[in-house]
Amino acid sequence: MKHCLTIAGSDSCGGAGIQADLKAFSANGTYGMSVITAITAQNTQGVFDVQDINPSVIQHQIEAIFDDIRVDAIKIGMVSRPETIEIIAATLKKYPLPPLVIDPVMISKSGYDLLQPEAKKALIEMLLPMATLITPNLPEAEVIVGYKIDTIELMQKAALDLHKLGCKYVLVKGGHLENDATDVLYDGAQFHLLHSKRLETINTHGTGCTLSSAIAANLAKGLHVKAAVEEAKAYITEAITHGFKLGHGVGPVHHFY
Ligand code: PLP
């Protein structure tokens, strides 16, 4: 059995964050573990409150896992504050690093800031260079590179610029462009364009969390990055296709076991 770790925020309604990550790890045939960075009070209609976890408790969660258990892949999601980012980077550096997928979570679909603006610099300087793969969507990529991205050519330029930050692979997700979604995967030498049909549904809560966790699970199982991304895309496409109504707002994607 391969072991995956998510370092991310809790979503009380279970659609995104830690809860989505653990479901995706499990559904993709791995054992899931979690380091919780923040607790959100959240439902399908929005995020209402956030409590950041003390850096020392984040450190101790990471140490408790690594001092005892082999970790085959890590996914990092919501990291909210500079202090959170600093302690994660410093603590992970004490151990051999398995494949690391970073989903640079910034704003929830409902418009709530999940990354404080002052944490952007720490994310770029301390965490992104450690990543095997980063998986920004277009608004997140725009915040990091500092220009508007609205064509495939600009997605490729952004992938080049993001790669210069030090991560090995970049997946710029094109779901926010109109028409069918094309994602750009860049490995430092070649671009791979990954096409998928646009799915007509509002129930997409947790899409980004689920995709990055499915990729991490595939990396833990030994797949190369391109294959890990392609298989995870097939998984998220099914999960979105079967996204369902929950509560009164944006429902979650459906995990398949
Ligand atoms: N809440 C938490 C804790 C998250 O980590 C994320 C991840 O992006 C979200 C909410 C946002 O999810 P979504 O934008 O899919 O609603």
UniProtKB/TrEMBL annotation:
Gene3D superfamilies: 3.40.1190.20. The keyword Nucleotide-binding applies. One of its GO terms (cellular component) is cytosol. NCBIfam families: HMP-P_kinase. Residues 11-254 form the Pyridoxamine kinase/Phosphomethylpyrimidine kinase domain. One of its GO terms (biological process) is thiamine biosynthetic process. Pathway: Cofactor biosynthesis; thiamine diphosphate biosynthesis. The keyword ATP-binding applies. Pfam families: Phos_pyr_kin. Its EC number is 2.7.1.49. The gene is thiD. One of its GO terms (molecular function) is phosphomethylpyrimidine kinase activity. Keywords: ATP-binding, Kinase, Nucleotide-binding, Transferase. It comes from Sulfurospirillum multivorans (strain DM 12446 / JCM 15788 / NBRC 109480). CDD domains: HMPP_kinase. InterPro entries: HMP/HMP-P_kinase_dom (IPR004399), PM/HMP-P_kinase-1 (IPR013749), Ribokinase-like (IPR029056). This is hydroxymethylpyrimidine kinase.
